[in-house]
Amino acid sequence: MRNIMEVEKKKGINGIRELDTSRKFRYKVTIVGDGRVGKTTLIMKYTQGSFKKEYIKTLGAQFYTYDKEINNDKIRLMFWDIAGQDKFHFLRPNFFKNSRAAIIVYSLEENEFGRESFNHITYWYKLLTKYCGEIPIVVFANKVDLVDETKINDSSIQDIVKKNSFLGYYKTSAKTGKGVTQAFNAIIEALNYKTLNSE
């Protein structure tokens, strides 16, 4: 929601107070995906630059705030990390409420878990549209550090991105940081652009 505030800056050299006309925005971004795909560590890597090797099991949901500036606009982001385990499904409608954008995360691991997390992208997309309507969505293909990137077949995920009109997808690694900043910035900048152009 737009919240334009005009705040006086501190006195300058000449003792004159200047008017700060920068705009302030608050966006809720929901991150979904199967349990253990790396949602929590991705958020931590982007917001704090840290990676925790041990698995942190999200209890229902966690949220993180992060301040960013784009073209002099001050952006406060609220990242909601939604648990992927089925036992938390009854909490999701409340957690999804008022989301302005979303990220779907799956794992690139070459095992049953990785394949299932990929197959569940559509499931998470349907949940998001059910409770949030049509909002900007980006897909993160996480744990790229665990596979040979040159052997990844992009055609399947590209088909899903095109079919559902996602903004795009990015290969990421919460461990090495590869693609993380670029991926998060893509959804944030798209969201801010959409907001400014809807005024």
Describe this structure in words.
The protein has 199 residues and is an alpha/beta fold. The chain has a single domain (26-197), classed as 3-Layer(aba) Sandwich (Rossmann fold), CATH 3.40.50. Helices cover 31% and strands 27% of the residues. The chain is built from 6 helices and 9 strands, in the order ββββαββαβααβαβα. The strands form 2 sheets. Strands 1, 4, 5, 6, 7, 8 and 9 form a 7-stranded mixed sheet that branches. It has a two-stranded antiparallel ribbon with strand order 2-3. β5 (61-70) and β6 (73-82) form a beta hairpin. The model is unreliable at 1-13 (pLDDT under 50).
Question: Any descriptors?
Answer:
two-stranded antiparallel ribbon; disordered N terminus; Rossmann fold; 31% helix; 27% strand; 6 helices; 7-stranded mixed sheet; alpha/beta; 199 residues
